[in-house]
Amino acid sequence: MEYGSVFSIFKIGVGPSSSHTLGPWIAAKKFVSLLKEIDYTSIEVCLYGSLSKTGKGHCTDIALALGLQGYNPQTIDTEKIAEIIQKNKTDNYIYVDAKKVPFIWSENILFKNRKHEGHPNTMIFIAKNGQKQVLKETFFSIGGGFIEHQGAHISKTKTQKNKIPFRIKKAADLLKYIDSTHTNISDIVLENERSQYSDDVIKSQLRLIYEIMIDCVYSGCNKEGVLPGGLNVKRRAKQINDSLLSQKEKNKEQWLEAIKKTSNKNFDTVNKWISCFSLAINEENANLGRVVTAPTNGAAGVIPAVLLYYLLFCDNSNEKGYESFLLTAAQIGFLFKQGATISAALGGCQAEIGVSSAMAAAGLTEVLGGSPNQALMAAEIAMEHHLGMTCDPIGGLVQIPCIERNAMGAMKAITASTLALTGDPLYAKVDLDSIIKTMWKTAQDMNVKYKETAMGGLAINVPINVSEC
Ligand code: SF4
Question: pTM, whole model, 2 decimals?
Fold first, then answer.
């Protein structure tokens, strides 16, 4: 059974997609690491399934080129990406580990437009010396920036080697541990993390994730213009932000303080802020900005929006509450990853926005003082009302319906938390494990047209000329 660290479900990376951008980027870096002893003159990458159908809109080719050149998605200056790629395309070569390699965009990255039996998101990397193939490796991007290397011996990471005190596969396991220890979900998750990392590392990493989430919201609230890709989607977060704040704050801290102090906390205002936070993150994501996968990039806006709702609008919120919120949310994400999927190519948007909403609902419920049973109930309610949600992005871009969908996921998470906090889990008819199982069965029944292929739904029924994208 896989142990999932909080820091693997919340990955710092670059938009717009965790499975189609971050995963391929990481796979490309891995492939380069395997080339060290190999004498090669060229590299070719073949993309299959959903990666070939929506990879262009999801910037898979850009991610592969950056990964092959050794850029790190956590640290790359995102403002420089366009310039790097433009230079690559003009030069027709790239540097791979300081070696100059010919690289013609249309010849070295091939969108195969057919499925591969291995996985809906398959990448095959081939290194050649002249015409002779000298290395061929297959990777699967399995969602949330996680990758699998076909046929590779799975080396035990530090997290797998050390003893994990609480082995959790299902919500029922989690509840068993909670009953025996009389603790919260976040306490259980923290103990598991402590078996791998020091308290200082855990705290500083949680802080970093929180800061990057908020940086992304702040950045998105201060940018105007049209998003790239050809759909001409206009950014909206800044407009909402400016309509709610009378003056421009100088920095992120002042901006947060100004929102917190706002005297107007009626439903309409709070709803506008939650929408604004979600849109801001996903506009940044669509613009290849720095985001935290939560549990994916397409759904990266739900958790930060709900977290900010707690910190800025809930009475008696605790500034450090983000730690328990993120720990709890991560555990819910892993329950879905283990029992179902967090990949839209396997399960549609229920696996992205649905899971992020369930994660946020549980996190919010715990920090608002709900019992562990209520937190799990909130996660269940949030997913119950995302079941069957398809992934049909127009033009294969992570923009429509994705950006607005994050605002909807955030609101459903808050509603789910409210219902759980005012309800009694003893009387709940559906438990979290049942909904995870149902979500997975629904995913298996879903037509491939609705699994991040842009072959159905909005992607084909909205009269927008996709060739413009
Ligand atoms: S529709 Fe949902 S799952 Fe599909 S790309 Fe958009 S956010 Fe991701």
Answer: 0.94
**Going by C-beta distance under 8 Å and a sequence separation of 6 or more, which residues neighbour residue 416?**
357, 358, 361, 378, 379, 381, 382, 385
Displacement of CA 1 from its chain's centroid (Å): 22
Contact yes or no for 218/241 (Cβ under 8 A) = no
Counting ligand 1 atoms within 8 A of each CB, the residue from 446, 452, 455 with the most, and so the one to mutate, is: 452
Mean pLDDT confidence for 56-69: 96
Residue 144 and residue 262: Cα distance in Å, rounded?
A: 35
Measure the CA–CA gap between 151 and 107, rounded to whole angstroms. 26
The position carrying tokens 């801290």 is 253
Considering only CA atoms, which residue is closest to atom 5 of ligand 1?
398
Q: Is 398 in the pocket of ligand 1 (CB under 6 A)?
A: yes
Q: Which residues of 191-215 are buried (b: 16+ CB within 10 A; e: fewer)?
A: ebbeebbeeeebeebbeebbebbbb
In the DSSP assignment, the letter for residue 124 is: E
Residue 93 host element (H or E): strand 93-96
Ligand 1 in reach of 400 Cβ (< 6 A): no
Give the chain's domains with CATH numbers. 18-149 (3.30.1330.90), 165-468 (no CATH)
Whether the CB of 300 sits within 6 Å of ligand 1: no
Pairwise CA distance, residues 93 & 284, whole Å: 29
Q: Give the confidence band of 2 by pLDDT, cuts at 50, 70, 90.
A: low
What pLDDT, on the 0 to 100 scale, is given for residue 188? 97
Q: Walk across the sheet containing 146-149 and list its strands.
A: 109-111, 42-49, 121-129, 132-143, 146-149
Please name the residue that has the structure tokens 């009626």: 266
Q: What are the DSSP calls for 282-327, one per residue?
A: HHHHHTT-EEE-SS-STTTTHHHHHHHHHHHHSTT--TTHHHHHHH
